[in-house]
Amino acid sequence: MFTVKCLNPISDQGLDLFTSNFEVMDDLNAADAVLVRSAGMHDLEVPDSMIAVARAGAGVNNIPLDAYAERGITVFNTPGANANGVKELVIAGLLLASRDIIGGYNWVKENAKLDDLPKAVEKQKKAYAGNELKGKSIGVIGLGAIGVLVANICNRLGMKVYGYDPYVSVRSAWSLSRMVNHSSSLDEIYKKCDYITIHVPCIDATRGMIGKEAIYKMKDGVNILNFARGELVDDLAIKEGLATQKVKHYVTDFPNKNVAGLDGVITIPHLGASTEESEDNCAEMAVEQLMNFLENGNIVNSVNYPNCNLGDLESEARITVHHKNLPNMIGQLTSILAGEDYNIVNMLNKSKGAWAYSMLDVEKRPTKDIIRKMREIDGVVRVRVL
């Protein structure tokens, strides 16, 4: 029996997938795993028994990834599960930036009781005229699950699409429309595009990437959309860009006191994945990944350990080892088994940066002495037997 604690409300669509081998409980200290959405975990004390955290969403800024890796706690996310919901809001953002829909809406609301409203509308509507998206150029920075969908739909809207992602996956590349222009640098995006939309994770290399220098290289009157993470954009640089009219509009799903209320800024209260469908998809994906890991030891969509999948457990036992990515680690693990006359019927080892994960299927259950010896290897942080 595996125990799971939910730190946020999780869609029943996902929770209903748990079999009788799982129990959702309230006691964090007795839980094997956690399901979380936005709850902060950096200052949360979790028990040594905790072996997994599944984030029902893509962003993991609320989870201490490195600290958990050092404890052998695997952290999962659900990339792509909310991609369609975010894509649709990006399109809404494009329309809000190109047409003064908000200004027109507010005028109608303020003048709703005019006796001859239709006549007044005809006189006033020119004040809210805008531009069509067809024929305009858009740069999509980041071609992951969301970026690919945005690029493809913008192409179907008749826009000239430039995509930039030096680390684009094979899966994304196959999904991308052949009509999307592949940019070799961000400078090309900045120079050519009327609209720029960002779809990259927030890491040290990308934090503040849209700053004063980047905006200086952009076309005059550029529209910048940020539905990825607020920290990717330098608020002060945006404020300066708006003041000089270098930036026409900044559309963001992450309002804060620096940008909210500024002329030219369209702020949306973090609604990108706030659809019933996205929440259901994220919950289902998180639960399925968690069950697969707890029951079979397989890692799919981890952000602090490598993906590693041996399928369903079919041998007598499976040993999984979280360890540092060090030389001769596999040799030490297999030597312990060989010394006790254990036959390995299947094995897999993967690494991700400083950390690695090994799976060893054996013909008989390992003894406590074997597991003790494995845990004593320098660099091993967790050993589990399934």
From TrEMBL:
GO molecular function per UniProt: NAD binding; phosphoglycerate dehydrogenase activity
Coiled-coil region(s): none
ACT domain segment(s): 318-386
EC identifiers of the protein: 1.1.1.399, 1.1.1.95
Presence of keyword NAD: yes
Protein name stated in the entry: D-3-phosphoglycerate dehydrogenase
Stretch forming the signal peptide: none
CDD domains: ACT_3PGDH (cd04901), PGDH_like_3 (cd12174)
Described purpose of this protein according to its UniProt entry: Catalyzes the reversible oxidation of 3-phospho-D-glycerate to 3-phosphonooxypyruvate, the first step of the phosphorylated L-serine biosynthesis pathway. Also catalyzes the reversible oxidation of 2-hydroxyglutarate to 2-oxoglutarate.
Keyword NADP found: no
Pfam families: 2-Hacid_dh, 2-Hacid_dh_C
Alphabetically ordered keywords of this record: NAD, Oxidoreductase
Pathway field: Amino-acid biosynthesis; L-serine biosynthesis; L-serine from 3-phospho-D-glycerate: step 1/3
